[in-house]
């Protein structure tokens, strides 16, 4: 029997012969839903491109009010949305509730930012002329979103697109389309026009991506996912010089100096590394701990990890759930085994996990060095490799020795060192004495091979707008 949350939020998309969505905790089928082929997607793109003009012509206040209604509906349906998310992604129910709140915050924020798409008046270069700039919507947009935050990664893109006056088509991850479809239903209830915001689970993901890159009506693509796929999108979208926002892979260092508040560092480590079973782009991927505090940090972190509870996200709402799939759990196990073969040592006792191949116990690895593969791979699982360092320059060198530059974390009580590290770390985001950095009010994004473009904050709205320069001449004064 279908889950009540599923029947309430996705009733129009269930299809007995469609795409299968499974619960990673036990492999059971959550739902089968309709998938879209490229012919259907082409029609959806064309209807979205036609619908955007009327939407862009509405006042900013009208768009703002509609987005605010969408935000209210998301908040009113928090429990059903969270349950749906846990069923399809495996994340614990408390984390799912947190994601609903976080995802909704982008709709609230951009409902307000819609009224602030200001242009400017520039002092002219000559008499009798005036210069102004206008900010106008990019046009029809496409978004490709991942499975690890199946709701927030959509609202972070759809919120600013709709606020700016654009239309947007979202292709959610095949493993977690239900949260996205539920958002679409609530958007309809909020009176967002049907053709303006569409969620389209694709029968063939790569074919849908190719279509977004080549259809002339699509003016912008926003993608969150791997660096490898991001490079493919860049190459294919270059043929039409499409605007891109890319949030790609990471290898976040978590740096703990001897003078750090170790209690705060441990709490930050747990929040940053083990949230969503370690499956976040900004997870601490490498722990760099200074000599003087290294042994105590490893012991205390290991003790806390050993006490963690791992189970189905509905039965274990505040613990840790499974990884997204059996394949991903096997990949993480292989990384750990390779690190141990290279000399890394497990610290502490691993918690017991239920039967099911998608589960992987949280692990702390000590004696890790920069020569090991695990120090350079994006783990995307509940594993904390700890490396030792001696000096500030040593920490910076190790932290920056990666092609990625998404997020970094620093724990130190020295204010001068905080500034030196913030300025010296080659990352788009740096958290100081805090392991949770994501918020709708700040610009989210990376540098180097972690991508470009920013989501959230006022900068997030700019990603969906063009600047038009207008020169007005023949304004000489009357004689």
UniProtKB/TrEMBL annotation:
Domain Aldehyde dehydrogenase, first and last residues per copy: 19-469
Keywords: Oxidoreductase
Keyword hit for Manganese: no
GO biological process: gamma-aminobutyric acid catabolic process
Keyword RNA-binding belongs to the record: no
Active site feature: 247
GO cellular component: cytosol
GO molecular function terms attached to this record: succinate-semialdehyde dehydrogenase (NAD+) activity
Entry's family note: Belongs to the aldehyde dehydrogenase family.
Official protein name in the record: Aldehyde dehydrogenase family protein
Native organism: Aurantiacibacter rhizosphaerae
